[in-house]
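[AMINO ACID CHAIN]
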Amino acid sequence: MSSTIPEDQPRLPLVAVLSGAGLSTDSGIPDYRGPNGLWRRDPEAEKLVTIAHYRADPAVRRKAWQMRIDVGVLDARPNAAHLALASFERTGIPLRVLTQNVDGLHQLGGVSARKVLELHGTARRVQCLGCRVRSDMADALTRVRQGEPDPPCAACGGILKPATVMFGENLDPEVLAQARAIASGCDVLIAVGTSLRVHPAAGLVDLALAKGAAVTIVNAEPTPYDDRAAATVREPIGTALPALLRRLAAEHGRNPD
């Protein structure tokens, strides 16, 4: 019995989703550059995620640790947009998520971890600037709550930071290379909840466009790529992305669960 795919069966598209902070605002995590973004409310907050300030100033680190507790990233739960992506994956249409977010909500929402590339790292782990040992963010936050405002590395006494890419640090070259390969090979790219102003992540859209991918941008505010996109959507992400994914699945005879 042959397992050859019939020649008249259409090839399913590779769908890449480039997600930014706007995707997680419905989960209670503030974005950065939006109308009510963290940088607009408190311009000094950018120092908390700038490696030079973080490394040099204990006061910055203390404020950063307190911010992590106040924001409650580890307490956030996936929202309708995260769940819609997991549902879309289950249709069998090839999906890859390239995320600028560090909250881990794509995986918690049900998208296979192997299909998620975290361009800016993860806030669910911490890393020592000295010995590079990684451990759980939850354990570090427990130490802060117990009276250590700037907890040092338990292994060597060095400075702990979240396992994220701060301003002034480079993206992991292997992760970036994988993301570029996906952007160059996808048929559809959906940029959702991202200002597309931070490079090299925003440059993934250039790669997709150069290869002829259909680009859709779902974002509350205009981006530098709007005039080159096949479509732009200004509706709330929590309703717009699920609807977009349902239409895309239906076009290929698949129904999200």
Residues 1-6 have pLDDT under 50 and may be disordered.
